[in-house]
Amino acid sequence: MANRLPVRxxxxxxxxxxxxxxxxxxxxxTPVLRERHGIWVGWPGGDCDPGIxxxxxxxxxxxxxxxxxxxxxxxxxxxxxxxxxPLYHDAIRTPTFDRDWWHQYREVNVRFAEIxxxxxxxxxxxxxxxxxxxxxxxxxxxxxxxxxxxxxxxIPFPPRELFMQxxxxxxxxxxxxxxxxxxxQVPGAAANFARLARQLTAATGxxxxxxxxxxxxxxxxxxxxVDSRGIAAKAAQPQIIARAAQLRSDLGGPDIVFLGVxxxxxxxxxxxxxxxxxxxxxxxxxxxxxxxIVQIAVPSRELDPxxxxxxxxxxxxxxxxxxxxxxxxxxxxxYLNQSVSNDxxxxxxxxxxxxxxxPLRDGMNLVSKEYVAARDGAGGQLILSEFAGxxxxxxxxxxxxxxxxxxxxxxxxxCLTRDRAEEMRNMRRLNRIVRRRDVHHWAAxxxxxxxxxxxx
Length: 456
Ligand code: G6P
What we know:
alpha/beta; Rossmann fold; 2 domains; six-stranded mixed sheet; about 15% strand; binds 6-O-phosphono-alpha-D-glucopyranose
């Protein structure tokens, strides 16, 4: 169960077939569910008529949950993305606390839980995903005590100091405690949760097993990953390699291509790298023609004023840098506010010498792992924020503090002169990490831990 179904409504150019929706969650779970013949319960998004959703896509059963316009505002744009998203990301933007939003969040979570109770076979395993559905484990447990319930949070889980701002803090913790296993991206998030559970409810126990109502709830870190082998295989296809070469030539055959790929989100620190690039162009360290920045900013949550503001902010920054430092035919920054296909994305990874990943806070960040997976034997450098969950695993990335622009410029400058043999060695090391702990390992280790829980 996840807020979104793993497909999006077809456009004319898709020829009527339902393409996979963008985002790390979908790319991570599709192969897992297909193998296990599971059903995916989720919302088809926007103005989609639920009546036209196919029953299965790519071998996955689909069960769609519809939202009214007012639920879309209150549950999705409101409580999920206007309250929880900023609160869980270090309150980078001020979270809004609105009682009506909360009521809609609860109601939609009840609907999801009822549907799960309806479709789950006796003794089934139900895996609930992400911050939009935190009440589902508790609600489902009361409807169907026979099922095994897992919950995985894809985004950060904040420390007490921030979480306590939430007026419905106890209800959220109690909702999560309905699960048999609660998984987080990193151990710090798991510890934050366990401490809050002990503080806000009658729960006792440690940071890895919480006891409540004579039940045990396991808590742990399961860092999500990508389909490394699938990505590497795609990156080895001749047409992808040719497309990467074409991209470099379309960019004017620069010495160095820096790439950023993100949903356009204020947590991603896209502006930081634009400011850092501007600084390096102004110091003459980067020169349009020789060096190029490509930034893909995939449109996201476009009805939310905070996202609209962020887009204007970014476009103003890009315009400023390009206005000052581009020359005719050689823009300093190539900025695309568009989604790109999976093939194009992998060709871009192949074409890029340096990947820029500078979120101010990120649960994991799958782009960093995708880049590494695509660069099998190809070298390349990864500049990675220390505030991304991936930073603790990807030993060999150049870690930066995105709050410190000079730290980013320093890392970018060092990339210009890095020894090629060392770069190759380093990327091979990173590649081994991402291959060993891929998405299949993530899902298998989570599901094995869920299977070991004792309450069913
Ligand atoms: C993040 C969240 C997902 C979410 C995705 C896209 O990765 O963890 O739960 O689906 O962003 O955001 P959207 O609001 O478009 O679903």
